[in-house]
Amino acid sequence: MNYDSQIDKALNALHEEGRYRVFQDISRINGRFPKANWTDADGKYQEITVWCGNDYLGMGQNPIVIDAMKAGIEQAGVGSGGTRNISGNTVFHKALEVELADLHNTEAALLFTSAYNANEATLSALPKLFPNLVILSDELNHASMIEGIRHGNCEKLIFRHNDTAHLRELLETIDPSRPKVIAFESLYSMDGDFGPIAEICDLADEFDALTYIDEVHAVGMYGPRGAGVCEMLGLSDRIDIFNGTLAKAYGVIGGYIASSARFVDAIRSYAPGFIFTSSLPPSLAAAATASVSHLKNNTKIREQHQDIAAQLKLRFRALGLPLDDHGSHIVPIHVGDPVKCKMISDRLLNDFGIYVQPINFPTVPRGTERLRFTPSPVHTQDMVDELVSAMDQLWSHCELSRLKTTA
After folding, report:
1. 3-class secondary-structure state, position 241
2. What does the pLDDT look like over 177-218, one tens digit per residue?
3. Reduced to 3 states, what is the DSSP secondary structure of residue 143?
4. Is beta strand 134-138 parallel, antiparallel or unpaired with respect to 155-159?
């Protein structure tokens, strides 16, 4: 076996399809985000504007968050010292879990190193708690949820995206005495559409199933205190297990689940992904605590976020660009061709100093390649104007079709 040849063959296939992923070297500028420095292939620096970041509210540069992290380092140093059950369980972690439980109005929360880790560890542990479990999963659930369900080695049933009629059909095939969990997301990040939370909760009540919801792309940004779409819709009390992240709207790193004290204790005790993973550094936990606390009382930034997203969608729609608008802050523009998608991304960066990564297969299905813009309250009017003008020029350059617009 020529292993090097096989590796080259696999990589060449990605290049030929136009979906080889290039990681750009950028350095965010503290206090000036979404501005960043980009180092091109020749080693030259250029200041750019980031339009695809998941630091949705710019909290990664908020002085309150930075000061909390500095204080955490001064008090506890850099590393956590190990896993939570050995030497990495600190007052910083416990304080953050109290803050997160309060956010979701649950009895308890459990901190993980990432939301991916939280999803994978929790979902894979569920069959240990509920023998003969069936997990019903939305077909567009995040890879971390898919992996967690797969690693749990229990029966799984996949329902069509946001299709509650199909979910009902599947639930009707299951023995009523078997334990069931419905796993879904509140906000799907590639299309920006919301899950039918109320309808799914109704089915969960009818068929005696638990609800597991991923609010990763919603926490911090929706609801009176930023607890997510469930809080915005007044449905939080109908959810059994929340999953969330500290790495997007909260601008730090880490993930968590929030649920009953009994359930959190069980996951803490049974999930290898929690038991055997070193905990977050205390300084990061301190920064996340400050961010969560701050955003609970800052509705203005959430309003600004929605305003800038609505404006960008309006401007793109006026150009006739194929935009999916489901009312969320995520702005996907469909290109439908991996080569042209990357071409536009490259030209935006090289010619206009605008950074947005192409979204290709396997993140999205073939033929639905897109540019995914994530406007934030720290994007200025001038930045919006520059982006809209650049997209208008490049769309024409690539001879891509436009939708008819009305005056």
Report:
1. strand
2. 999 999 999 999 999 999 999 999 999 999 999 999 999 999
3. helix
4. parallel
pTM of the model: 0.94
Question: Token pair for residue 317?
Answer: 């729609």
Distance CA 138, CA 207 (A): 17
44 as an active site residue: the answer is: no
With tokens 């905990």, the residue in question is 279
- Measured CA to CA, the distance from residue 111 to residue 259 in angstroms comes to 12
Are 82 and 276 within 8 A, CB to CB?
Answer: no
Which residues make Cβ contacts (< 8 Å) with residue 133, sequence separation at least 6?
A: 126, 127, 152, 154, 155, 178, 179, 180, 181
Q: Give the tokens for residue 297.
A: 């009382």
| Strand segments (E) across 104-237 | 108-112, 134-138, 155-159, 180-185, 187-188, 193-194, 210-214
Structure tokens belonging to residue 100 = 């997160």
**Which ranges of 18-132 does DSSP label H, i.e. alpha helix?**
63-76, 91-104, 115-129
Residue 201 parent element (H or E): helix 197-207
C-alpha–C-alpha distance, residues 284 and 242, integer Å = 21
Which residue among the candidates 9, 156, 248, 300 is catalytic per the annotation?
Answer: 248
Beta bridge partners of 194: 187
What backbone phi and psi angles, to 5 degrees, belong to 175? -55, 125
Cα(162)–Cα(185) distance, integer angstroms: 9
